Amino acid sequence: MANPTRSAHVLVGALLLVGLGLSPAWGARSGPPVDDTVRALEPTLAGEFALQAGKLDEAAKAYLDAARAGNDATLAERATRIALLAKDNRRAAEALALWRKLGGDTQAQSAAEATLALRRGDERAARRQLNALLASGQEGSWQQVVGVLGVGARDPEQAARLLGRLLDDGNVPDKLQAWLAFGGLAQRLDQDALAERVVNEVVRRFPGEPRVALLRASQLRQAGKQDEARKVLGALDSSLLLVPELRMAVAAEYDELGDFQAASTTLARGPQDDQTYALRASLLARVEDKTALTALYQELSHDAAKPDPARRLLLGRIAEFLERHQEALDWYRGVPGGEQRWPAKLRAANVLHELKRGPEAYQALRDLQADAAAPEDARRDAYILEADLRSRDKNGDGELDAFARGLAAFPDDPDLLYARALGWERRDDIARAEADFRKILVADPDSTAALNALGYTLADRTTRYREALELIDRARTAEPDNAAIIDSYGWVLYRLGRKEDALTELRRAFTQQKDPEIASHIGEVLWALGRKDEARRYFDEARKLDPENRALKRALEKIGE
């Protein structure tokens, strides 16, 4: 169902009518025999309530019962997807068989069947389904295959093995985007030989295509061949960099190589706008090239006599990079109007704090909080920024007061509650953090951010692992491909003692997002499994990404490294 919560409310109303002895058929006291739709009402509601409780196995059973009662393909599809999330292979197979019988999206059914086969370890059946998808030539078929391999496989090794066999079978369509996607998947799976094989095939099929050169550079970078990757990028025809999309892509690849200067130089070619100027400033700031950043700042300043709000906001930000705080303040205060006026006021308050003019900073924020002309999000953000500044000042009482005043002005605002919950968690006050997360969920039971944050907090900071799993499962149902949620799922499995299952999920998360916290979690699980050399490699990866990451520091302290 497109909107199960809304549908559930409709079904509640229908059930109330039935419960009151009123027939849905107008004017009939006894009414016709109960139809399939009515028979499906009760199990559908049971499925929705189980889903809201994070009980995926019960939800899958109830939705399958509803699909059988109502002969409904949409309910059968939902039962299949929930059963796959719950790793209930038997029920997923039953639901899929019913879904196929009742009709529906055949591509989605084939993808689900391939996923189920992979879960069972039947790679031959999965290969057959995926080849059928690739050979169909239907719109979106190869995307389904990439999705199954990226998310449906039991582990990266299985996904890589099957990808190699699909390449052997020769059914990948002769489309550049498809080959680029398969190449990107091979790289995310950390399979250097497989990635090189895909890249070589793409070069053969699409000679001279600049996006292929980008894929080659990315493959070389991930294989640790940084100099060769730079040579590939350097050999690109400079005229191609006049195309904005390619210029951004080349700059992004230089950024991944850690060559911020080259990334900035690439962005400087061709027509400029505020986006490219802002990116160039950010890159130069990261490489701490204040000479080049100052030159860019001066170039933009010449043009800023006219009251262009976006340009003045940008100049204020560059001045902040350069730690020219008074100049930044002047630029922010010079933003004359438009939607940029409100972020400029927030940035101005932050700059005042950097200038050690705390009372002025807090007064500016109080003025914005009381400004009836300001948009609600700007006024709310003023409370969040004030709380942050109070925290930086080590003024815990002031931080809490800012949140309290913000919530008085914006009762139960989810952003304020979420920020305060994170503050409680940093103070190790888990009970209050939980209370704020739960307030968000009262108003919005489907908030994946709050579900995931609360579930992770309970898994990480308490022993309430089963409850944590139910919350994370609710988030997984809404966003099964979200790397942060997959990480939380892996972490709670680890806390439940399911180390191998945890490692599978955490590695899947890391293939989707190279994040220091995910790398730290993988390292800790490997360490617990006695694979200490491999664990150290992941800890090293986490250090490269962010040496100050809290999860990394806690993991290293725990293992005594």
Give a concise summary.
The protein is an all-alpha fold and 561 residues long. It has helices spanning 4-19, 36-52, 56-70, 73-85, 89-102, 106-120, 123-136, 141-152, 156-169, 176-188, 192-205, 210-222, 226-234, 244-256, 260-267, 274-286, 290-301, 309-321, 325-333, 341-354, 358-369, 376-392, 396-409, 414-426, 430-443, 448-461, 465-478, 483-495, 499-512, 516-528, 532-545, 550-559. The two termini are 50 Å apart.
How are the SSEs ordered, and which strands pair?
Blueprint: H1 4-19, H2 36-52, H3 56-70, H4 73-85, H5 89-102, H6 106-120, H7 123-136, H8 141-152, H9 156-169, H10 176-188, H11 192-205, H12 210-222, H13 226-234, H14 244-256, H15 260-267, H16 274-286, H17 290-301, H18 309-321, H19 325-333, H20 341-354, H21 358-369, H22 376-392, H23 396-409, H24 414-426, H25 430-443, H26 448-461, H27 465-478, H28 483-495, H29 499-512, H30 516-528, H31 532-545, H32 550-559
Helix pairs in contact: 1-2, 2-3, 3-4, 3-5, 4-5, 4-6, 5-6, 6-7, 6-8, 7-8, 7-9, 8-10, 10-11, 10-12, 11-12, 12-13, 12-14, 14-15, 15-16, 16-17, 16-18, 17-18, 18-19, 18-20, 19-20, 20-21, 20-22, 21-22, 22-23, 24-25, 25-26, 26-27, 26-28, 27-28, 28-29, 29-30, 30-31, 30-32
